[in-house]
Fold each of these.
Amino acid sequence: MKHTKGEWKVEYDSNKIGEPGHIMAIDGEKKEYICTTSGNVKANSTLIAAAPDMLEALQNLIGLQFANVDSETKVRLEKAIQAIKKATL
């Protein structure tokens, strides 16, 4: 695992709509800043905070044995593999 260890959570500067969302990695008592989001703050922040969980889910899925899958499923699996490679450069 190359990304910052811990559960990633969103913290906001205030309750005002449009305020930046800060992504923090929380590992026990340790809290580490990851990044600040802008734009569509809620959507961007929740997507970024979920990234480690999504990566782990994809890696677990790809780790399964897929015997006798059709060509459409093979294309989908290859896209998942490419997404993992992009996320773990």
Amino acid sequence: MARSAGVSAWAPFVPRLNVAAAASPGASNNYAGRTLRNGTNSLVYNLYTNAARTQIWGNGTDSSLRVTQSFAGLLLVDRTIPVYGRIPARQNVRAGAYSDTIIVTVTY
């Protein structure tokens, strides 16, 4: 007589997710000196990953850092990544609206 047996086991799967957020240098193409523009006028500024404003947010090149987070989750996960900015004082520029475009790339 032949017999067969089987074993069945179930274990929950908890995926680990790594997320990285990289920021472009903006119109200046320079992480060390991003610029806000109003026509031909410019205002130096930068974006940072920490409140002390010592780590420039970028893509990991030119002394910049990507923001990375790792977490486990089964369903929907909501994450906020803080960004800190600084415009150095004593820049002699005209009053007006200054702007720059930063592209943020999120990879997972």
Amino acid sequence: MAHNYAVEFFLEDDGSSPVARWITEELSAAERRTVTAALSELIAEMGKDICATDFGKNIGYSKHDNPSKRHQQAQIGVARKRLAHWQRRERQQEKARKRAPPKGR
């Protein structure tokens, strides 16, 4: 089955991936299978449109291990920082692409 979207994980400046670390180091084998299936069968097929479905409502966050409001807010803060970091990096890369001379010249 051909996928419509490539799934990419956020990378820290040192090249490490918090998502890959979470999947490989923190999840049980059954949880890893579930996440892997969701990534390939849902997210790779639907892309960001998954956020408008019941599947996408809680993507990336589970209250299972620590359901406290304080922990939830801390995790939201981490996610916001990572999003802002990624957006900055994307803007910088776009500026660099615009400044680069056209290929073939």
Amino acid sequence: MTEIRLSEDAIRKVTHDLRGPVVNMRGFVDELGMAVTDLIALVEHHRGGLSEEFSCALLEIVNEDLSPCLKFLGQAALQFEQRIDEVPQMIDADLQEHSEVEA
């Protein structure tokens, strides 16, 4: 039983330690998303002072490259965080199953 408890504690520590980088990643994705929104607004506001070619090229990069990448990263981080959250539940289910088999 001590070995099982030790394993549970180790796995819970690892899942806790994995959450930190995921939270950071989600925070950076949110921050970059706000920067993209600000950049679009800035280009739109100064569109008269920028060449049409430059404005269109910049907006294309933002809308077709940056925004989809940030969306993908945000979704991936969320999925990873959900999987991390499932680990203790899977351990509990395995332990319960193991206890039932021994009984």
